## 1
Amino acid sequence: MKFQSEITRKNLTVLMTLFYEKAIEDAILGPYFMHELGDDMQSEEWVEHIDLLVDFWLAKMLGEKTYKGNFIGAHIKLPQISRESFVRWLELFSLSVDEVYVPEIAEVFKKKATLFSQQFINNTLKI
């Protein structure tokens, strides 16, 4: 796939699918996602989850009014989340972004993802 120079729903779907393919195979992240969504990324639960994340990133990157959820609240219900899991999430997300977008766009994603990761850590972990 050619590196994308603009953000669209289509290439965000590619990004989210690529990231979750890595995540469910990961020793740290895989158990979280398989417990919540199963291991079949073609399932309705996974398709809905990927669509939700595409909406989230469209809202965060382009200001579209596509996401109405609470991204921190959705993760508070997962008490087993650790700081290590956020570090790993950021690593895999960054790798995936680099595979989909030109460096300028990838860097913006990585900066926002780092901020979101910090928000998760500060709001979900009892440190």
## 2
Amino acid sequence: MAKSNGIVSALLDILLAVVRPGRTQESNPQRPRAHLRKETTTDAVVDPGRAAGTATMSIDPDGIRDLRLAYAPDRDGAPDAGEVIWTWVPYEENDGRGKDRPVLVIGRQSAERVYAVRMTSRAHDGDRDFLSIGSGAWDSQGRESWVDIEQLYSVHEQGLRREAAVLDRPRYGRVAQALSRRYGWSAAG
């Protein structure tokens, strides 16, 4: 049932993109700048990462073959590997619900999308799917954070709500190594 809900949600996104034409791309098609404001529709405000065509999507990491994990933060308004960003993230049930949360960008998927792993402040000591990365500026309460290395997302640059922080190179390297061991991806650190 959850899989069919995901298909329905994707079809709805496509339909809304056709019904509401007129959204323009940035002048540089190679690397459009992220829009940090909420997009509006006729009746409602849509959270970045949830809007048709720019929605954050859950992806099966086992289906990704040639991902190169290379540290490349650049505080330019666009998400880059090594940056912690905030976006709307769908729940695992993929039933249309979700929440705004921090994710760690790990690599580029295309000119408009990046791969990211979700973060949580809920303790996951001893859980092989989570890696502790300590605290940082992405959490105003200074809580310890964990990266979920089992859950991969595709985030559109226009789905970015805000850049929260840059993870330092050693911690990004630990995450990259864990992902490389698990999925066989190339980790440049």
## 3
Amino acid sequence: MPGGLIPVEHWRVPETSVRRSLKDSFRHALAQIGAGVVTDKETFESLDNLPELSVEQLESFAPRPDFLELAGTLSGALEESMSNDLVCHGVTLLVAPPFSGIRPTLECFPQIESQHNGGAKQWSLIVPPENLLLDDQGAREWWDRQDLSRPWVIPELADFWLRHLSGLTLVRELLRRVAAGGLAPGVIGCSSWCWQFWSSYLDDAPFAPVTTSPMGAAELGAWFESLAGGGSNKLIIARMADDGLWVLPMADESDWKKRKHSGFLRDLASVARGNPGVALAIWRRALRVRPEEETDTKESGEVSGNSGGVARVWVVPFDQLGLPTVPQSKGDNIGLLLHALLLHDGLDISSLQLVTGVAEHEMGFVLARLARLELIEFEATDASWRITAHGYPSIRRHLQSWGFPVDAF
């Protein structure tokens, strides 16, 4: 967690690099080759047509983080925040954009212990009821049955409401109880889109939400190296597939005279808006391995899971990645469905129809189209549709251009 936790109002988008035109990029690559930047004397051989990595290779070169380990780190940071003004009566509101990893990290909290007030206590995991359409009395009775007398955690507040007249009571009652005080220390994870709605709906609520610091190029590079290392001394070497410029390992001051580094990581941080989950999804999509190098390294023992050695990968430029884009449409259904999925961090068909009012037969066509474009995906575990991480940048940009209220991230 580089930078730790910060107030939401202190969050800033990472610096955007100046994009070169295709002609300037080509001229720049030729100049670098001519200057002897690429180690080989010969002109660099383009590797644009390399096949995508297998699932096994991705889990070796760019594995997903260990959320249990992150839970321990986040718990420590939250314990510190509970001693300052970033809490409301002992309850921390942790707001973060989608794919930041907050939900799966908080879901691991029952496996660790809270050290609040010097005593080790097990976190109580609060999960929503199946029926979210309750009246005020039903909401009060439901919260009365929850154990909020010891440290408690809600991984995602978006699971507790529906944008419907009868679907607001659970969150409204929870926030009222938090503001009134008297609860044990707690943590509420909340999607930035969910909080955009509720901060507008309850603009007088006395909350000071915190978030994780955005990841810039340096933080992303160090994180990718750490993930590939897997806790060992394995080194990952990543170079651009079109011109051979270096991406990883990160350059120190002495490296700049020997190796010319690409601006890929800075561009990645900008496109992902500092979001680690989005950046990792795009990074995994960009990695390639030469078949002959894969064979050579396996035979020499350079790459062997999480053991020591060197992992060599190539990175496809942004303009060749083919990231999903939102289609232009004359109707409002695409925007309504995408916005609803972000507000609620995913919904099943019946709930999606309830909060959008889109007819079921029309919804089926739109969802199928968005799925083909890799903008959304269906998760069988809870029968819900969700936004994809690599499709999120385009979706956010289009919703903003269409006039939908967007999050602050």
## 4
Amino acid sequence: MIRLIFTATTIITSSSAIYFYIFHERLSKRVAHKSHLGTLSTATKSTNIESIPESVFSAEYFTLYDHVSKSVSRACLPSNEATEMLFKRLVRRNMTAFSRFPQALVLAMASKTPEQKESFKAGYLAALDFEVGNLVCGVYQVVVRRWDRVEFEIKMETVDFVQARLAISFEESSQEGNVVFCSETVMWKRADEGRKMPLERPVLRWMHETAAWWLMDSGVRYLVDLEG
């Protein structure tokens, strides 16, 4: 019986691993993505993440940068709403979806203050305009808000040697008739810091990629479905 249970568990675990591997591979083909590990160069600085301190763009810091985007024809999106309003819908929907992820459930259990606990609730997220100071899912605090972007500082008390940002934005090309929605994550630490940042760990990096890619892909499909 023990051998049977062990065999069944092994089969289920292997099947799950294969499924999620295939899921990750399929997602990678539905979005545009790139990453960078090392010194955050001036080339990467063109991403326009405004809240990254100038000093981070030097050899004094070791950084991890991830970028995912998805382009959609403006004609496929609701014509009765401005793109900046659709963008706000996208951010609300994606952060609400993220609040149900395993990563967010862990953050919710670690929340201590009423403000942190409230920041996971669907009603709270659905009404947010993402103004500077707003807290989302316990650790994401808005530090930059423009009509075409939201930047969050990621507050990680358990790894206080790391600083991080999440930026969600869009760019509209009237000439090509497309809208490109984008999500960027950057983490940095001092170059002489030997401890690993969370996203330097393969499993956490894989989970992050899968979540970011799925949120971008499904978020844009959510906006397209609004037209229907």
